[in-house]
Amino acid sequence: EDYQLVFTGTKRSIEEAISSLETPISIIGQITDDYPEINVLNSKGVMGRYTSSGFDHFKNK
Per the structure, how many domains does the chain have? Predict the structure, then answer.
């Protein structure tokens, strides 16, 4: 299976990581002060809200 790490950083630190690491880095977004919540743009450029969901490994423990 293919996995990628997700991380944030300053523009400079991301540029340094791209030039120094021997692994591909995909830039998928940016953090700004414009929107205080997580927003997602789809492939057509339409903004939507991110809803947190996922599997809870300890829910039934």
Answer: 1
